[in-house]
Amino acid sequence: MPAFDYAAYDLSGKQVSGVISADSERHARRLLKEKKLLPSKLSEVSQGKVKKSGARREARVNNFDLSLLLQQQAILIGHDHRAGGNGKTASHAAELAQ
After folding, report:
1. Residue 71's pLDDT is what?
2. Which of 8, 27, 54, 81 suits a disulfide with 23, CB 3.0-4.6 Å?
3. What pLDDT does residue 67 have?
């Protein structure tokens, strides 16, 4: 039975992805619909590329988490975007303004 790589949205709007086995692309779409998923991408996977269960998955980070990580990292290294991007911290910029 062919396998299909998919990306879909669940009822909460969160994007999920995976591989599903189905007889055809149409059957795969129907199976995803039964799981209450709205597919945004569906493509057949060749036999050599089928992922086995338990295999490592690629880590994915959404834009919000990436933005939060970068902001926290900037604070840790002492650069605050509110200081005008000059490498000074916000507290240093406030001192200069007085």
Report:
1. 85
2. 27
3. 85
State mean pLDDT over 62-78: 82
Output the pLDDT for position 29. Answer: 93
68-94 average pLDDT score: 66
Q: Which residue has the tokens 């599903």?
A: 20
Tokens 């509110």 belong to residue? 82
Q: Are β-strands 15-21 and 38-45 bridged in parallel, bridged antiparallel, or unpaired?
A: unpaired
Can you tell me the distance from the alpha carbon of 70 to that of 36, in angstroms, rounded to the nearest whole number? 34
- To 5 degrees, how large is the angle CA 36–CA 37–CA 41? 160
Tell me the C-alpha to C-alpha distance, in Å, between residue 59 and each of 4, 24, 34, 48.
20, 28, 27, 21
Residue 31, C-beta contacts closer than 8 angstroms, at least 6 positions apart: 20, 22
Euclidean distance between CA atoms 36 and 38, whole angstroms: 7
Domain layout of the chain by residue ranges: 3-47, 63-97
